[in-house]
Amino acid sequence: MDVSFLGGPKPQLGVGVVAPFDFALDRELWRWIPDDVSLHLTRTPFVPVEVSLDLARLVSEHETLHAAVQALCAVSPQVVSYACTSGSFVGGVAGERAMCAAMTRAGERLPALTTSGALLEALREINAWRIAVVTPYTKSVTDSLEEYLKEAGVTVTGRAYLGLTRHIWRVPYRDVVDMARQAVVGAADALFISCTNLPTYDVIPQLEAELRMPVLSANQVTMWASLRAIGAEAVGPYQALVDPVARRGPASMTASWAPEEGAGIPRCGGLSEAAFAGSAVPSSEAEPADGLDVPPFHPPEEPGPPAPV
Questions:
Q1: Which CATH class is domain 13-248?
Q2: pTM of the complete model
Q3: What pLDDT score does 249 carry?
């Protein structure tokens, strides 16, 4: 059969992604990507360190980013994204900007962004400056996220965390939902679920419907901002950030607080915290969750499919 009439493939739109060595959710990233865009992933070199502030610093060193971005440039992406929340907030706002600058230099002026920078962009998009936070991290890493947000003018109204130092991708959706319910206290405009290694895609619509507010996740904001940078749109039915219909639905009903036009960044309010110990709990080396006794970690023999919500 003569297929010469087909010509060649359409010009490729590509998003280059630098992920930490332990990233396990490649398939989740693809779920936000439209059919005419490709993802090109590379990983940072392995280091024998559990999830911690030390690991966040190691996987975000400029030399590491330089090598990863240069490798991605071989396939000519239109933007390069660093898909790690803790690695991009551990140095504060200035550190995140320096990471973007380092990646841009490595890519010969290729646009670059990070998960934590994408989060701030998403919060501006939905006009949310008082948020609840959910993380799988230890207390010290969660504290660092809160410090980053505070520096950016964002108030954390409540939070919950698991205290994990490994196997974050195995956390079931039910644990994410339980943490969200504990974290959303006070007048929050949105919920943010941190960590690109924490599964979130399918749980976002249900949480938005239950909590009546936009729900953002690390992988979601990373892909949304990456696609926006190249003039494309993320795919995410019933997710307020990426679906205009969802933004007019239950997620738009929060409206408990919003700055008046021209009012600038709101003043920080009080913090209410809920430390949650779910079924996927930390190893013996993890930090305790605010004095709560944490049961031992018993990982499943096989990860299996995500648990239903």
A1: alpha beta
A2: 0.81
A3: 76
